[in-house]
Structures are given as C-alpha cells and as structure tokens.
Amino acid sequence: MKIRVMVFEDNLFLRSLISEFLSRRGHEVVSYSDPTECPILRDEPCLKACADVLLSDVYMPNMTGLQFIEHQRKKGCRIPHVALMSGVWTPKERDYAKKKIGCKIFDKPFRFEELGRWIDECENQINPNRVLVDEPVH
User: Which of 66, 104, 108, 138 would suit a FRET pair with 89, their CA atoms being 20 to 30 Å apart?
Assistant: First the structure.
C-alpha cells in the first residue's frame, strides 16, 4: 500500500535522504524545510487527514516540531502516526513528546532500518480505504 508521509526537516541533506528512503519504499513523500510552509497550517479545524504519517525535526526555523504538532493537534489534526526526531533532546522535551502528545521518538543519528520498521508498523495499521485531503502537494 502506498502511504503519504509528511517530512519536516530543515537540514536539506537529511530531508533529501529521508525523502529518498521513503520514496524508494513506494511511499508518497511531501517534505518541507519549515513547518510554516505546510499548506495545512491554518486555524480552521482539520476535517480529514492530510497524510498517514508525519515525521518532524524538533528544532527548525520559525516553529519547533513540538509547537507545530501541538498546534495541529489543537485544531484536530487527524494524522494518525506522528514522530519527532532530534539529536539534542532535553529530558523535558522527550518526556513531553512521548507522554503528552504521544509521539514516536527518534534520536539523531538514527538508523534508517529503525525508521523503516516504524513506517512498516504504521502501514500495517492504516485502513487501505482511507481518504486523504489532497492539499499537501509539494
């Protein structure tokens, strides 16, 4: 099954590597260097999911990954699988991401096999008949 993954990473090299890795696995990848570039970052409520998986760096320009996910969740974001990645987690951030907003955590540098396993787990839980919003086209 082809799933849609949104990737938010300000490092061009890593964003390209992640996007290429996921694309080669047959997934649709929409990537951004900054969460404020996301076409779904608005104030109105989310009525449908715009992606199956969201993978975000924590430290990015204009808005952290934590702030972005909090904002999206407050307006009812329906992306079912969300992960955050960072090489410099504080214990407070890690705890908040895992326990308060329920994100999968990746420590940079991570192994792509680890990311692949998580994506496979997500894919196995996704209804193949789901309908996604068409907006996050890059």
Answer: 138
Long-range contacts, stretch 96-101, CB < 8 angstroms, 24+ apart: 96/66, 97/58, 97/66, 101/66, 101/69, 101/70, 101/73
pLDDT of residue 136: 52
* Separation CA 101–CA 67 (nearest Å): 11
Beta bridge partners of residue 55, listed in sequence order = 7, 83
**Helix (H, G, I), strand (E, B), or coil: what is residue 20?**
helix
Query: How far apart are the C-alpha atoms of 65 and 62, rounded to whole Å?
Result: 10
Place of tokens 């919003």: 133
The predicted model gives 41-56 an average pLDDT of: 80
Sign of CA dihedral 71, 73, 74, 78: positive
Parallel/antiparallel/unpaired status of strands 28-32 and 4-8: parallel
